[in-house]
Each structure stands twice: as structure tokens, then as C-alpha cells.
Design goal:
This is Histidine phosphatase family protein. The protein is 27% helix and 16% strand. The protein has five helices and six strands. α1 packs parallel to α2 and α4 crosses α5. The C terminus is likely disordered.
Length: 225
């Protein structure tokens, strides 16, 4: 008999980031009050599903997003560095002025020479490789049931592009991956047969935050990733 398994890629909730930094992999960035509400909404919406395995990026915002769902399901999340945020050469820079930030800092232009790789950060194919390795482990751990992997916008979107055999080159505003959204990978045995998408906390996202306010062909993107 065919065994059906679903691996949900859950993006973390809103982060407290008053300085508008592209914080990337930096520690010390936690969910805002709204982000905590989003995480609880996910637990309320999907906590009754057949979820038997949770793994999460080691960054605080991801662990805090996983916590309410893990509590509802009675699970101990597995920390998995393979689903961490992608690395970025612009990490730590404030992008409150959007694209003007780059225009005012010519020394940053040298990182923008190749949007296909991308030249300013971790290569897309490397992101997809590490993410899919974690997805396969989550699938195996939850075979016949459901698993949740808590990660970040770019790794999740890159994984979706990989699964749908689409080009990695994209504009950040085109990413269908809002705060606390679920990108769900449906497997029949080991074969990926479908990708679906839902937004359990979509009504909590402030107007104007549903799309990234700045991009450079996939470079520094949003102030609250």
C-alpha cells in the first residue's frame, strides 16, 4: 500500500526588529508580540492535525514559532542547522530606506554581479540541497503522518522552486511565503506528488508587510524576514 506523508515548511512569525536590520543568522532576534500571536494561531489552526515530528532552525525566532505547536502536540522539536536562514553579505545592515541604501553605499555594489547564484549570499542550489536533506529526514521520521519544519522565507521559497522545477532567479516580492505560512510537501512513499500553500495567520499580517519592501533581484529583502 502507498504511504502518504506531509512535510509542512513553516515560516517563523514576525520578529521584533525596530532598527530595520537585515539580521540573517544573527542571534538575539526574537518574535514580537504579534509574532507570538501568529505562532499561537498556527498551533490553534493545525494543532489537531496528525503531526508527530517537528524540527526547527536553531535561530530564536524559529524555535519560538515552533514552541506553541510543539506544546499542543506534546513533541520535543529537533534543532536542525540545515534549515537555518541563508547567509548574506548584507547581514547587519539597516535597509530602512529600501533600494536607496545600496545607491548610497557603492562599496556594496560589488556583491550584486550575479543574481543567478546569487553573488551576495549562499548559492540557491546549496540552500535547496540542505533543505531537501532535512525534508527527507522529516518525511522518514513522520512516515504515514505529518511533520513540520520551521525555517525562514528564502530557504522555504528556494525549496519550493526546487520542488516545482522552476528557476531560482526571482524577485523577492514574488515569494508566496508570508509570515507563519505553511508550504506543504505531499509525498506518496518517497515520491513528492504535490505542493500546497496556506496562511493560518494570514489575517494577522499588517497591511504592507505581506510583500518585501525592498529587493535587488533577490538581494536584501525585508526588514522583518
Amino acid at each position: 500500500m502507498t504511504v502518504s506523508t506531509i512535510v509542512h515548511l513553516l515560516r517563523h512569525g514576525e520578529v521584533h526588529n525596530p532598527e530595520g536590520l537585515l539580521y540573517g543568522r544573527r542571534s538575539g532576534f526574537h518574535l514580537s508580540a504579534l509574532g507570538q500571536k501568529m505562532a499561537q494561531r498556527v498551533a490553534d489552526q493545525v494543532g489537531d492535525r496528525d503531526i508527530i515530528h517537528i524540527r526547527t532552525s536553531p535561530l530564536e525566532r524559529a524555535q519560538e514559532t515552533a514552541a506553541p505547536l510543539a506544546a499542543v502536540r506534546g513533541l520535543e522539536p529537533v534543532l536542525d542547522p540545515r534549515v537555518i536562514e541563508s547567509s548574506n553579505k548584507f547581514e547587519g545592515i539597516g535597509f530602512g530606506e529600501g533600494a536607496m541604501t545600496l545607491l548610497k553605499r557603492p562599496h556594496l555594489w560589488r556583491h550584486l554581479y550575479n543574481p543567478f547564484k546569487p553573488s551576495w549570499g549562499e548559492p540557491y542550489d546549496e540552500i535547496a540541497t540542505r533543505m531537501m536533506a532535512s525534508v527527507h529526514d522529516a518525511r522518514d521520521a513522520a512516515r504515514g503522518h505529518e511533520a513540520v519544519v520551521v525555517s525562514h522565507q528564502l530557504p522555504i521559497w528556494t525549496t519550493r522552486l526546487h520542488c516545482e522545477q522552476r528557476s531560482y532567479l526571482h524577485h523577492p516580492r514574488s515569494r508566496q511565503c508570508t509570515l507563519c505560512s505553511l508550504t506543504s510537501l505531499h509525498f506518496e512513499d518517497d515520491l513528492l506528488v504535490r505542493v500546497s500553500y496556506s496562511e493560518p495567520a494570514g489575517d494577522l499580517i499588517p497591511v504592507g508587510d505581506r510583500k518585501a519592501p525592498f529587493s535587488a533581484g533577490g538581494a536584501p529583502e525585508e526588514q522583518r524576514p
